[in-house]
Amino acid sequence: MSVAFQFKSQMKIPPCIMPCEFRRRVVVAFIVSISCAPPSLATDFAQSVISYSSGSNPANGYTNPLVALGSPERFTGEGIAPGAVTPFYPCFGANEIVSIGAGGQLTLGFNPPLRDEAGNPFGIDFLVFGNSFFTDGAYPSGTVGSLATDGGRIEVSADGIEWFLVPNAIADGLFPTIGSSDAGPYSSLAGGVDADQHKPVDPKWTAQNLVGKSYSELIEIYDGSAGGAGIDLSSVGLDQVIAVRISVAAGPNSNVEIDAVARVRSTLARADTNGDGVVDGIDLATVLSAFGTTTEIADIDHSGMVDGADLAAVLAGWTG
């Protein structure tokens, strides 16, 4: 059983003026948005399990690979020890993570493909969420101590046949997941500001130079990100991939748990609220109709509120 899994199984933690034609298009789009709410962007996460081999020593009861589809967890431990997912309190439910034992592998599919996008923050194109965590150097303050990580190799493929190992990448490592930017390190309640599951943490940070950081400093470093191991496809020389494989080397103590794999989306990409490939009146109407609320799909910059910055992001990305 992995170090991270052992930890979780044992812990007990308590007016602007617009041209007439433009206005007409916005009004039409606004009516459409009222009658048909924008769909959730399921394509931002792995959508299919291509293959799964549990390996020789998976955690008992944690061998359902379908739990790795969709978004990473924000709240965990319901009915046992409920708490917001933070870098000190990772998700641990059997319906939240899948275990990959020694010699095993998990292959997840994306449609449309993950692409090497130069406009993505730090050049990172996708994120792998495991259930690594930081030990607390001054419990319960949330002071960063060591990183409890299980490892795991990451490979990618453009065709499902030829695979490329991502160099220096650890599937279940930096950066431990955070579900809400305003939840305390061991909060039993979900926060009100969802962390961005499509935004990477600045890769200049390492486990070593995070040691000793306070929880407020860590939140600032994450800068609204939900964490995850950031992967740049340019590191393997591919423009796009359709599959991500996470594998574990053979060995008596090798075991990795995976929660999700997410596409990185730049602010301009997120301005396409309905995922139709263009930023137009429909997206503008979505933001206008949700203005002053916390509607997630219209909160383009993930600030916790739909406001002028989100409107500006739509206008900046306008292609329609």
Chain-averaged pLDDT:
86
Number of helical stretches of at least 4 residues: 7
* Classification by helices and strands: alpha+beta
Order of helices and strands: HHEEEEEEEEEEHHEEEHHH
Report the sheet with the most strands, covering strand number, pairing sense and barrel closure: 5 strands, antiparallel
Approximate strand percentage: 15-25%
Number of strands: 13
What gross morphology would you assign? globular
Compute the CA-based radius of gyration: 20 Å
Q: How many domain regions?
A: 2
Q: How far is the first residue's CA from the last residue's CA?
A: 52 Å
Secondary structure: helix percent: 10-25%
Low-confidence stretches: 1-40
Q: In order across it, which strands form the biggest sheet?
A: 1-5-12-9-10
Could you describe the 3D structure shown?
- This protein is an alpha+beta fold.
- It folds into 2 domains: 21-39 and 269-320, Type 1 dockerin domain (Orthogonal Bundle); 42-265, no CATH class.
- Helices cover 18% and strands 21% of the residues.
- It has helices at residues 3-10, 20-35, 207-210, 215-222, 267-270, 281-289, 308-316, and strands spanning 48-53, 75-76, 83-84, 98-101, 105-115, 126-130, 133-136, 144-148, 153-157, 164-165, 229-231, 240-247, 255-263.
- A 5-stranded antiparallel sheet has the order 1-5-12-9-10, with no helix packed on it.
- A hairpin with a 7-residue loop joins strand 7 (133-136) and strand 8.
- Helix 2 (20-35) packs across helix 6 and helix 6 (281-289) runs antiparallel to helix 7 (308-316).
- The radius of gyration is 20 Å and the shape is globular.
- The termini are far apart.
- Mean pLDDT is 86; it is low at 1-40.
